[in-house]
Amino acid sequence: MPDLLIELFSEEIPARMQARAAEDLKKRITDGLVEAGLTYAGAAALSTPRRLTLALEGLLAESPTVREERKGPKVGAPDKAIEGFLRGAGLTRDQLEERDTPKGAVYFALIEKPGRTAEAIIAEVLDATVRNFPWPKSMRWGAGSLRWVRPLHSILCILSDEEGARVVDLDIDGIAAGNTTRGHRFMAPDEITVTSFDDYTTKLKRAHVVLDPAERADAIWQDATNQAFASGLEVVDDKGLLAEVAGLVEWPVVLLGSIDEEFLALPPEVLQTSMKEHQKFFSVKNPKTGRIEKFVTVANRETADNGATILAGNQKVLSARLADAKFFWENDLRVAKSETGMNVWAEKLSNVTFHNKLGTQAARIDRIVALAREIAPVVGADADLAEQAARVAKADLSSEMVYEFPELQGLMGRYYAEAAGLPQEVANACEAHYSPLGPSDDVPSEAVSVAVALADKIDTLTGFWAIDEKPTGSKDPYALRRAALGVIRLILNNDLRLSLAEIFAKGYEGAEAADLLSFFHDRLKVFLRDQGIRHDVIDACIAMDGNDDLTLLVKRARALEDFLKTEDGGNLVQGFKRANNILSQAEEKDGVEYSYGADRKFAEDPAEIALFEALAAGEGAISSAIEAEDFAAAMGGLAALRAPVDAFFEAVQVNSDNQVVRRNRLNLLSDIRKRCGQVADLTLLEG
Amino acid sequence: MTESTGAPRSFQEIILRLQSYWASKGCAILQPYDMEVGAGTFHPATTLRALGSKPWAAAYVQPSRRPTDGRYGENPNRLQHYYQYQVLIKPSPPDLQELYLGSLRAIGVDDTLHDIRFVEDDWESPTLGAWGLGWEVWCDGMEVSQFTYFQQVGGHDCTPVSGELTYGLERLAMYILGVDHVMDMPYNDPQSPQPLTYGDVFKQTEQEYARWNFDVANTDVLLRHFEEAEAECALILSQEHMDPKTGKRIIMAHPAYDQCIKASHIFNLLDARGVISVTERQAYIGRVRALAKQCADAFVLTGAGGFEA
């Protein structure tokens, strides 16, 4: 069985698109081949900046013959009908077969689709794949109309087996498939002829191309950490940057460079951001001091001077960049330390629109300040400090550094607030109030930070709710889902007890609180589902009073989840459901609600009496446990009912002929329902 | 012309070598456009000639003005007036990357010692209604050129596609000549009887224009000029295609486009004066784009836009 090798060789593919494109190539080609009847044993997709490569092992040499039988019109049917059938089947009348069926003689067509060669199928599938490739953005070039991510130069497409390799005959808009490729753009630009995947990877490596992106990334990381280690330093881990850099080179050469002494006083985050964003450099730090002292750059070639010219050039560019950063840093510090301090920046925000229906950034800050004051006592923060923090938390948006590096917002605020001599809690809040940004980001715990973080997010949520700009489907341009999750995590991680409804009422005017709360409940379900809590368990708890107190809600849900995992819990819920079903049916039939309370004196059966006793024994204990928010104890109290309830259903027929006994038993079931209902709405549980 | 060899010694030698290189590759060497523009792309030899089906190959230096980048000549590499070298070839030849690398060699960049990289950078000009895909070209981590395959200009699909190369001349030259401050860069040969630095030529003008751009330019007058340019552009394009005097079909795409260039530059000046708010900004850009689009619509109806009577 032959192996297939495909390489699409183009001008430089954006680094961020390469991995996805290699996978898309694999999926589209293998899907197309399999659909046409060509199965294969294994597939590998690889990429470099200039090529997408797919290698398939053990491909069928041709697709199997397919036989199909089609039932046609009756013998003697009008000619038109028969001709239509013949056209569809691609046969002539004498090729039809007459068969007797219970409905009379009928024409049958036996169609045989002969297998096709792998070459023919590959040519077809590759042509369609190239023409319909799902690039995020594609382009035309020259005078042609073919689209690719950048100009496509050549296609290598060969089938190889013991007898050798043959080129698959195919031509896409003038690009004929062949058995050649090229090596490194500068180090080995000549044409290379290849006969198999092994031959291809070996010759490419000789031509200074490492085909596998993972191999390039590993080599970069190994070499970078080794070089850093030799100087007693360590490379700052950055997986995203590593993948990107591996997508920028075919022949990685790691160079360790120095940062001019005059820039080492810059905040490490500034150094790191500037080097990463502009230059794609890794930061190298001194593990003893935590300072960033050097950088690693990855060149795409070896040189006679061992990279000396390249490194000198990169160092020069970096110095120019850092000179800018230092200039911004010093200007900003001057402002922060001046008499007016960060207030100058805060005032500037009155010229910056936050959202055309929600006013300027300055107006937004005024709202956050007011809200932070309201929230402060609830989270145990000093209201004046919370106000002060909210006032300056976003001031750094006007600083030169954040203008240049927006991703440093908050962090610079902290540095500048410290420089301005503001209280440490205020400085911390400048940075922390944006957090948490995702499901795994750290959650602030300092009270002032928590107050400002909540105020910021609640203002945003109530604001966008008020102007009816809610997330829909996959669209969430203002990251409101993330904001709601942030609020949820702030509350849960800090065990905060607060009523969201009350806080919404203090947020942006005009937000529909009930709708916003149900949005929170949806986000909470997603969040807790990831922690293994079933959505119906949460629903059963959301149905209870006080569901805008998320800490209480989650406490209840966790207890219920645990309870359901016990044998007693699972069985009790079944018993409850049985009781509830019988009761609901009876209530519907009789048109009354059985909620008078049952009377023990009408109890006949010992199991019935035992249930009465169990209910009486548990009375008060569950209520007081719930009062004390000890849901585990409350559920434990319910567990005691499980055996008597089971025994009751085992022994007793609820629908007794004696109406008095029947009513009493229904009232007894109602007591069970009421008792269980104190804990959660168990009717919402599934299964 | 023979190619000079060895390292260039001055800013002007780098320009001369680029001119001679691209001339040898068949480009028409044009002169700068005689109007204030923000970038070489605005030259009608690029904007308009990228439209329509007629082949084209041109290269030129274009003085470019970005009023907000003025630093009174103090900043080592920021200027409100600088030079771009621009190449436009339609249709883009299959070996454009190789041609480009050849131009780097011509100006003394030895690619066996340097690390040249094509790093994704999609180009978009909201004021021209234009976009393309390509790269910024890095030499040892420094951006030395912009390389773009034009896909749309003035809202029109480019068929065929033009390849555009833009070199930031000062930055590139500083790198090649090993100079840290632009004003210290030799403008002509340092061995000449009258050696001049870039600062000798431009330091004073940088100061004068920075002051005018930031603090003095009369914004009322500028606002009026903007409106007038817009009105003139509309007036030009509203004329009959048939010239009543000569009886010839004369569509005045270029004079109209001059007004678009003017409006664009006035917008940049107003921006530097800080009188355009964030929300107004988008509106102004939209107005310039509307002009560019109308000019493109007109150009494709002319002979050089591929129109055949």
What's the arrangement of secondary structure elements?
The complex is a heterodimer of chains A (687) and B (309).
Chain A (H helix, E strand, L loop, with lengths): L2 E8 L4 H21 L6 E7 L2 E7 L8 E9 L4 H11 L7 E5 L2 E10 L4 H14 L20 E10 L2 E4 L3 E2 L2 E4 L1 E3 L8 E3 L3 H10 L6 H18 L3 E2 L3 H8 L6 E6 L9 H12 L2 E4 L6 E8 L8 H30 L5 H6 L4 E3 L3 E2 H19 L3 H10 L7 H5 L6 H9 L4 H9 L14 H20 L13 H14 L6 H7 L6 H17 L5 H8 L7 H16 L1 H24 L15 H13 L2 H7 L3 H21 L7 H19 L10
Parallel strand pairs in A: 7-10
Antiparallel strand pairs in A: 1-3, 1-7, 2-3, 4-6, 5-6, 7-8, 9-10, 11-12, 13-15, 14-16, 15-16, 17-18
Helix pairs in contact in A: 1-3, 5-6, 7-8, 10-11, 10-15, 11-14, 11-15, 13-14, 14-15, 15-16, 16-18, 18-19, 19-20, 20-24, 21-24, 21-25, 22-24, 23-24
Chain B lengths: L10 H14 L3 E2 L14 H4 L8 E10 L15 E10 L5 H11 L9 E5 L2 E3 L4 E10 L2 E12 L2 E2 L5 E6 H9 L20 H19 L2 H19 L15 H20 L5 H22 L10
Parallel strand pairs in B: 1-2
Antiparallel strand pairs in B: 2-3, 3-9, 4-6, 5-6, 6-7, 7-8, 7-9
Helix pairs in contact in B: 6-7, 6-8, 7-8
Explain what this protein looks like in three dimensions.
The complex is a heterodimer of chains A (687) and B (309). Chain A is an alpha+beta fold. In chain A, the strands form five sheets. In chain A, strands 1, 2, 3, 7, 8, 9 and 10 form a seven-stranded mixed β-sheet that branches. Chain A is flat. The mean pLDDT of chain A is 93. Chain B has helices at 11-24, 44-47, 96-106, 169-177, 198-216, 219-237, 253-272, 278-299, and strands spanning 28-29, 56-65, 81-90, 116-120, 123-125, 130-139, 142-153, 156-157, 163-168. The model of chain B has no long low-confidence stretch (mean pLDDT 94). Chain B is globular. Chain B has eight helices and nine strands. Chains A and B meet through helix 8 of A and strand 4, strand 6 and strand 7 of B.
